[in-house]
Amino acid sequence: MNLKPGWLLLLTISAGVWSVPIERNGGNQEPKEEVPEESMDTGLYYDRYLREVIEVLETDPHFREKLQTANTEDIKNGRLSKELDLVSHHVRTRLDELKRQEVSRLRMLLKAKLDSTNTQSLQMDHASLLKQFEHLDPHNQNTFEAKDLELLISTATKDLENYDAERHEEFKRYEMLKEHERREYLKGLDQEKREKEEKRMQELKDKHRQHPKVNAPGSVAQLREVWEETDGLDPQEFNPKTFFKLHDTNEDGVLDEQELEALFTKELEKVYDPKNEEDDMMEMEEERLRMREHVMKNVDTNKDRLVSLEEFLKSTEKKEFNNPKEWETLDTKPMYTEEELQRFEAELRDKEEELKRRAETLRQEQELLKERGKALEAQRREYQQAVLEMSQRQKEQPAADGQPPAGPNGELQFQAQTQKPEDEAKAPAEHEPEVQQNNLPAEPPQNLPIHT
């Protein structure tokens, strides 16, 4: 993606690639090879959304023209955002789609966060939860409006202004952690081994400090070195304007932060080598950041985080350009005080105690679950035994209790039984008429006369 200076003005997003050394052999100058563009991550959690919005807006000729003529204030105060109403329909449609995708992504992040904290919400109010994200309008989740562009620019500007400070603080904590681990390691050794290890560590520090002189970044000596060793040109023919154009790799008329940082590689190689045990590559990146900030402070007069050709040429006229102070590398002064280290170690101890308490709580809960599991298993076995015993009693129950015997599947079984002779004699015949007492016939004779 090729971004214009208007966007780089505030967002500090590189349009091209890291500056690549240009190989030249004396007078035989070879043309620069085409290097595929490479996205430089801003470090913002909404970096992709930011880039895609800019890429879509730059496809509109009207907006691109306005962007090229806009200044810092036009962008900061929201005037540029109002031009969104004049872009073409397909651009607005694409922006709407990008916003819906970003809202969907944020919803997934929120759900993952809630799931991780075991917070179950059947009726999640996304509009309220989305308010914590400042780079878009949470009340309108379907269309991209001027307010969205204004919020995106202002939030990115604010976040990027704090980005370097956060990187410095992160590096300081990294250095304090290294020192803490070193001290803890030495505590675990006996006196003889400790003295030997302390001597070895001091030798590595001394070896790291024994490096060639580092030129001040942005000075004539530093730029001439790049001109000669990287560009392969005669140092006596150094020309600031030509130098600027050579290292404006994306040819946008300015040197952005990545293009500037690429200029310091030769100086950093004097101090840091990834093959050496004593050289820390994290420290090298911190050194690169310090060099870039030094140049920006002295060259970037309008504080737009870019160096224009005019600003660059004016900086070469300053006294500091030809007679700079000697550059002090990180190894010349500590990054933290002993008091800061003690507070950091106390913080580590508190966190360690908290982790131990949580681990103990989890262990107790695990033991409790094991005991409950054992009790449930014993109860299950008791139930199984009771069921077996009941089934056995049902099988062995005699038929004399009035219940017919049961079959193999629990069904009732009926069997025909034969009566005994004496029982048959006692039982009256089922179809025989009853005998009248005194042997009288049951009915009067048929032919007897009837007496009146």
UniProtKB/TrEMBL annotation:
Major location (coarse): cytoplasm
Gene Ontology CC entries for this record: endoplasmic reticulum-Golgi intermediate compartment; extracellular exosome; Golgi apparatus
Signal sequence range: 1-19
Residue ranges of domain EF-hand in the record: 235-270, 287-322
Keywords (A to Z) from UniProt: Calcium, Coiled coil, Cytoplasm, DNA-binding, Golgi apparatus, Guanine-nucleotide releasing factor, Membrane, Metal-binding, Phosphoprotein, Repeat, Secreted, Signal
Membrane topology field: Peripheral membrane protein
Ranges in coiled-coil conformation: none
Biased segments, Pro residues type: 442-452
Subcellular location: Cytoplasm; Golgi apparatus, cis-Golgi network membrane; Secreted
InterPro entries, A to Z: EF-hand-dom_pair, EF_Hand_1_Ca_BS, EF_hand_dom, NUCB1_N, Nucleobindin
Pfam family of the protein (one): NUCB1_N
A GO term for molecular function: calcium ion binding
PROSITE patterns found in the cross-reference section: EF_HAND_1, EF_HAND_2
Residue numbers spanned by region Disordered: 189-214, 380-452
PANTHER family listed in its UniProt record: NUCLEOBINDIN, NUCLEOBINDIN-1
Subunit structure, interactors included: Interacts (via GBA motif) with guanine nucleotide-binding protein G(i) alpha subunits GNAI1, GNAI2 and GNAI3 with higher affinity for GNAI1 and GNAI3 than for GNAI2. Preferentially interacts with inactive rather than active GNAI3. Interaction with GNAI3 is inhibited when NUCB1 binds calcium, probably due to a conformational change which renders the GBA motif inaccessible.
Free-text function comment from the UniProt entry: Major calcium-binding protein of the Golgi which may have a role in calcium homeostasis. Acts as a non-receptor guanine nucleotide exchange factor which binds to and activates alpha subunits of guanine nucleotide-binding proteins (G proteins).
Protein name: Nucleobindin-1
Organism (species): Stegastes partitus (bicolor damselfish)
UniProt lineage: Eukaryota, Metazoa, Chordata, Craniata, Vertebrata
